[in-house]
Design brief:
Structural class of chain A: alpha+beta
Number of helices of chain B: 7
Shape of chain B: flat
Strand order of the largest sheet of chain B: 3-2-1-5-6-4
Number of strands of chain B: 12
Oligomer: heterodimer
Mean pLDDT of chain A: 89
Mean pLDDT of chain B: 88
Strand content of chain A: 25-35%
Largest interface: A-B, 42 and 53 residues
Helix content of chain A: 40-55%
Low-confidence stretches of chain B: none
Radius of gyration of chain A: 32 Å
Number of helices of chain A: 4
Order of helices and strands of chain B: HEEEEEEEHHEEEEEHHHH
Structural class of chain B: alpha/beta
Strand content of chain B: 25-35%
Order of helices and strands of chain A: HEEHHHEEEE
Number of strands of chain A: 6
Strand order of the largest sheet of chain A: 1-2-5-6-3-4
Distance between the termini of chain A: 76 Å
Low-confidence stretches of chain A: none
Chain lengths: 171, 350
């Protein structure tokens, strides 16, 4: 009789143990699955973030190269990829420059970026049109875009070769 | 023995139920969280892609794009737009939009706003689910006849669902089940103190708005109306300068949004004018001091322009009727000066 009771107890203990073991294995599998899913999700978020940064850089570069403030025009007919030197100097020079004086207005459009224009030939010169760059250690990525442009001098009616450099920063 | 067996079996069932409940709860929580994350993520993706679409459209002047988007409700304000709980600030310059777009297609259209030099590009958003009805004088409908209303109708892109009717036909406008109906009247019936009743099919229909235009292609007044069941009530009066701004009033169904975008455009006009002011001073100095002998003719051309630009700059501080009139007056003078500069082979002003 006592032996029977002991056998029964052992049997139920084994059954409870089995159930607990099954549950433990089940939860371990869920945890493994969850960890795996989180890793994959994190990877995809990082990928999307990078894509987003690149898209933003392209948008800002596009906006910068089509700024009516500095674009060349003849009788209000705008010439693409051409910068009027007189307009550029009017916008970028002076303390503070017109662009710097309206930095909140431009920040909404150009954000953390650095837009500079370099004259390459004939001669060399450079202008900083917009500078809201982030210092070393304050950004996680920096994307540079170089856009070949023509620089037009309306007084002398001459063109020069130049490059518009757009650096876009992300925190 | 049998009693213990019953207890043991019951205990097993309780354990199974408890474990089952925990598992169900766990998965329910995961699914709920995942659902909300996925909704936010989809909204963010659409907003991000929309920003790219708008940025591309902004620089392509005169072009109309019909872009397929996932069917979703996009709410627009002056400087922000929202899908569900996710909102984003416009990064593009000046966008005229209806308050709500709920469609799987987005129509974008861009025009340049020049006074008389290029100030900014104005971007207009719409959808094929918005119907635009242009109401013009009966005499204007006749073939060959030209009037301002017909001209504006013809300027609006064909991708937009538009139709033109004569003023006496307003009462017979039928409901075609559109999400929004925008009535643009170039006939001053809507301007009278007692605004006319809506046509019976449009009565009590949501999303019916009207705009009354009193002016010409240079400048004028725009009265915004919204329907209140059976008639229109005025939502406010504003003004426009040049046709692209009028198009803004047509595409934006809210007077506050229109005014806000125009204020932004005026701010840009102020900045661009300052740049032109500095440019003319530099050109005047070039003709006076960099050439030997100095070119007094061209120097005079550019020095004359400075005061005109100064007046435009002063008038662009605020968007209001007085400033619109002042700018319009100066534009004509500036156009003449530019022509004169061309005649004397000087550098053009703009």
């Amino acid at each position: 009789m006592r032996l029977d009771i002991l056998k029964m107890r052992r049997k139920s203990q084994i059954q409870i143990g089995e159930t607990i073991a099954v549950l433990a294995v089940f939860f371990i599998l869920i945890v493994i699955g969850f960890v795996f899913y989180t890793k994959v999700f994190k990877g995809s978020v990082e990928l999307q973030r990078e894509e987003s940064r690149q898209l933003k850089a392209v948008e800002i570069a596009q906006r910068a190269s089509f700024l009516p403030e500095v674009q060349c025009s003849e009788e209000n007919i705008v010439i693409d990829n051409c910068i009027d030197i007189y307009k550029l100097e009017a916008a970028a020079e002076g303390t503070p420059s017109i662009i710097k004086n309206n930095e909140i207005f431009y920040f909404d459009r150009l954000q953390f970026s650095d837009i500079s224009i370099q004259k390459i030939y004939p001669g060399s010169d450079s202008w900083v049109l917009y500078n809201e760059s982030l210092g070393e250690g304050n950004f996680t990525s920096k994307i540079s875009t170089n856009i070949p442009i023509a620089l037009f001098n309306p007084a002398e009616k001459t063109y020069s070769f130049g490059v518009m450099k757009v650096d876009t920063f992300s925190r | 023995m049998s009693k213990k067996g019953i207890v043991e079996i019951q205990f097993n069932w309780v354990l199974i139920l408890a474990a089952g409940a925990i598992i169900l709860l766990f998965f329910s929580v995961v699914i709920m969280k995942q659902k909300s994350i996925s909704e936010v993520s989809i909204s963010s993706i659409i907003l991000k892609n929309l920003e790219g679409i708008l940025s591309g459209a902004e620089v392509s002047i005169g072009t109309v794009n019909s872009v397929a988007i996932p069917k979703t409700k996009i709410e627009f304000e002056c400087n922000r737009y929202r899908i569900g709980k996710v909102s984003k600030e416009f990064e593009v310059m000046s966008v005229f939009t209806p308050s709500i777009i709920e469609s799987n297609k987005l129509i974008t259209w861009t025009l340049d706003w020049s006074l008389p030099y290029r100030v900014t590009n104005l971007l207009y958003l719409s959808s094929p689910r918005i119907r635009y009805i242009f109401v013009v004088d009966s005499s204007c409908i006749a073939s060959g006849a030209t009037c301002f209303g017909k001209m504006v109708f013809n300027s609006t892109p064909v991708e937009v669902r538009k139709e033109i009717i004569e003023s006496i036909g307003v009462s017979s406008i039928t409901d075609r089940g559109d999400d929004q109906v925008r009535i643009i009247s170039f006939y001053d019936a809507l301007a009278t103190p007692s605004a006319p009743s809506l046509s019976i099919p449009l009565q009590n229909k949501k999303g019916v708005t009207a705009l009354n235009v009193i002016g010409d292609e240079d400048k004028g007044q725009v009265n915004f109306y919204s329907s209140t069941g059976t008639s229109f009530t005025s939502k406010g009066v504003s003004h426009y300068i040049r046709e692209p701004a009028l198009m803004g009033a047509i595409f934006a169904d809210d007077v506050d949004v229109y005014n806000c975008v125009m204020e932004d455009a005026f701010k840009k006009l102020n900045i661009v004018t300052k740049i032109y002011q500095n440019k003319t001073v530099a050109l005047k100095d070039y003709y006076n001091y960099s050439l030997f002998p100095p070119d007094n003719t061209c120097a005079t051309r550019h020095s004359e322009v400075f005061s005109i630009l100064q007046n435009i700059q002063a008038a662009s501080q605020t968007f209001n009727l007085a400033n619109i009139n002042a700018i319009d007056f100066e534009i004509t003078k500036l156009e003449d000066k530019n022509e004169l500069a061309q005649l004397y082979s000087c550098a053009l002003i703009y």
